[in-house]
Amino acid sequence: MRLLTVTAMRRVDAAAIDGGVSGLTLMEAAGAAVATRARARLPAGGRVVVLCGPGNNGGDGFVAARLLAEAGYAVDLLCLGAVSALTGDAALAAEAWTGPVRAAEGGALPSCDLVIDALFGAGLSRDLDGAARALVETVNRAGVPVLAVDVPSGVDGDTGAVRGAAIRAVETVTFVTFKPGHLLQPGRSLCGQLSLADIGTGPAALEAGLAACAPLDRNGPALWGRDFPHLTGASHKYTRGHALVLSGPATKTGAARLAARGALRVGAGLVTVASPVAALAENAAHLTAIMLRPCESADDLDDLLTDERLNVILAGPGLGTGEPTRERVAVAAAAGRGLVLDADALTSFAGKAPLLAAHLADGDARAVLTPHAGEFARLFDGTDAVAEGADKVARARAAAALTGAVVVFKGADTVIAAPDGRAAINDHGSPYLGTAGSGDVLGGLIAGLLAQGMEPFAAAAAGVWLHGDAGLRHGPGLIAEDIPELMPAVLRDLVALTGG
Asked: Which annotated residues bind K(+) (predicted)?
């Protein structure tokens, strides 16, 4: 699903109106969608409080209130600001409401089964304060389920950031397509269940919106499924790629083995762990289908890479930080193979992002970087090209442009960005993935997909989604070792879905 910024969504509305659909018709459809979702949450004859704001979001609320009242529900409508100050379609929607309107002031809410939040939409341009903030805080204290219109009031539709204060909703109804703020944290958590409604803008208007912003997608099989590796009768281990995972010293070998297991389970035909001699016995004690080669230095790695069947290198998990790791990365990058850099490989270039970019450019490596927030900050903060105050998508895009690599900016709202400006936000995951070694397995999944021929952006996006799906399947008690073992079920269902 393509995501639209607030500005692009305004372009959709304008294009629909230019095409002959009235603004009031769109508002009626939006309000009807909200009323439908409200009815699904209300008991028969239940009581709902509708909070209407001063703009078109408030107009949607007036429509929903009218329809709910006509359906037999008890409706209390509270308006922030004077109804007489409403303009355009919102004023027309308010005129059609025949019930009483109360001022949305401080104090307790009326007793109710549901609150509809139609105060402020995704285009909120300043932090909430005064009466608006007090009302939001009152709603949150009340503990009543909230159905939000467009976004929970106080959430920035482009970034997911909280503008001063924000409502916590159990469900959010939005229109046409999702916005970045629906998927980026903390907005994602504040939205609750996401519901999407078609309000009749039409495909031409949507195309106008898509043309008004850089490509940004909700991550899922629709984005990369056609590129996912599918086996044929002619497939064998040598057609499925050979991933090389660099291991650290004997006391830190587990991370590399987790990554190697992920690469093998996702379908790489062959996987080898390149290990220091002192760690060979430790690695050999735990590896069976995964092969093992000695590798002490950058020179040894250079020798290994004379075997061109080694088409992907994963460096970082448990590798150690400092100059020896930078040297290995330089050799791996110069080889021009697929390359996944994580953990220590990224930390070793702290404050040296331009140097890393130069290495990647030297061999025209097909590279994917997988930093979590701390690694991202160490690598990129202070770099002029990556603004520290920008939103997560903008920062990931800037980092990708700087390094010439796909950047997987990990977290509960992982962003995948390519140097050409493509980006995706992943919301298919589980908080149970926040456990030691989970990221190492993710690096291995991406390396395994690169080894099978996926291009870096698709491999990164697919790896993130598969990783998230495993987390969703397992749930409580998940540890990193579980993730590769969940891959057969994850892949079986994916193959059925994509027809491979």
From this structure: 57, 117, 153
Which has the closest alpha carbon to 195: 41, 426, 10, 416?
41
**Complete edge-to-edge strand list for the sheet that includes strand 242-246:** 216-218, 423-425, 415-417, 406-409, 366-369, 338-341, 312-315, 242-246, 270-275, 291-294
Dist CA 275 CA 277 (whole Å): 6
Out of 3.30.750.24, 3.30.1330.20, 3.40.1190.20, 1.10.260.40, the CATH code matching 221-498 is 3.40.1190.20
What stretch of H or E contains 115?
strand 114-118
Fold of 6-213: Rossmann fold (3.40.50)
Binding site members for AMP:
410-414, 439
Known binding residues are 56-60, 117, 121-127, 150, 153, 255, 318, 372, 410-414, 439-440
Express each pLDDT in 254-306 by its tens digit: 999 999 999 999 999 999 999 999 999 999 999 999 999 999 999 999 999 99
Look at residue 395 and give its three-state secondary structure.
helix
At 82, which helix (H) or strand (E)?
Answer: none
Domain ranges of the chain: 6-213, 221-498
Residues contributing to the annotated binding site for (6S)-NADPHX: 56-60, 121-127, 150, 255, 318, 372, 440
Distance CA 185, CA 173 (A): 17
**Dihedral-angle region of residue 244 (phi above 0 means left; psi in -120 to 50 means alpha; beta otherwise):** beta
Give the annotated binding-site residues for K(+).
Answer: 57, 117, 153
